[in-house]
Amino acid sequence: MIIDALQPTADDRFTFGLWTVGNPGSDPFGLAVRASMTPTHIVAKLAECGAWGVNLHDNDLVPFGASAAERDAIVSEFKAALKVHGMVVPMATTNLFSHPCFKDGAFTADDPRVRAFALRKAMDGIDLGAELGAATYVFWGGREGTEVDASRDPRTAIGRMRDAIDFLCDYVKDRGYAMRFALEAKPNEPRGDLYLATTGHMLHFISTLRNEAMVGVNPEVAHETMAGLSMTHAVGQAMEAGKLFHIDLNGQKAGRFDQDLRFGSEDLKQAFLLVRLLEGSAGGARYDGPRHFDAHAYRTEDEDGVWEFARGCMRTYKLLAARAAAFDADPEVQDLIAERTDPQLDPLLADYSPQKAAALRAVTLDPEAIGQRGLQRERLDQIMTEYLLGAR
User: Fold this and answer.
1) Does 2 have pLDDT greater than 90?
2) pTM of the model
3) Same domain for 283 and 346?
């Protein structure tokens, strides 16, 4: 592959969060190893790396407790930097997990004063996102869970979450914002157990909302992997439902804490399959939203290493997209994955009628013979491996 083909363009729609590349490398066992960076500096450096956009939590940009005048000055400076560097803000979100008042939840907290503050903070964050042009607003319930399950009926918590999302949907409509919501699932951390732990949980929850049409999901590689699940399956279900509104790309080792590693640095096969799905190289519809890298540079890195990390996320995605396209263009692969059709059976397999049920009963089927047929999945998987390893 020509190296220039790996240079990101606006058509790739690659984004990073202020909190991702801005992470100073601190963790529960150690202090920061990198100096903090201003939002305007991050915008400039991401543009230099070839990113299309930058996302943010409210307090990534405007410090908690800032006055209205301070807030307006910061936002004005940030908007000027976006314009100078040709960057956009496709997504924004609210930090409802850092402040001590959220220690037992935000939207699901037992104390109505906490829930009121969470709604007010979210409304302010939505206003900020709308001012910056964000079309998607993400909600991650980092503190919406428990360590002591006896403390709260989960049905109560889910009802409070529904009330909050319904309230904020109506707020967006009342303000006339061109914005939709994406809900982000996670099984645990920082709480012992989080409500609505997987993308599947979120998809069902969304079906119970008053404003269901304007709410989708934001699956994250690390979060689905932490639950021992397939990110590709989660994203496929979301796409099939028309609910993939945003996506968080990173790397994760199964069975570990939330690592937020560089995209593609772990489980290249799953990364390949995910990119293949998103890019539609197998023939399905292509995802047209942002490719957001919600990941951090290793703690071993200085600032130069942070930008190497950012470039690496984007290069790996483009490499995998090219490999997926080549894989799906391979005639042998096309033959192996070609859909089997049967003109007699296919019309009978959907849209029940008594006549179809009777016709199905009349068809001669030999399950023993069917069970003897080899499906050549070993061959298909080996070919995929060879494309990943560059042997094809």
Assistant:
1) no
2) 0.96
3) no
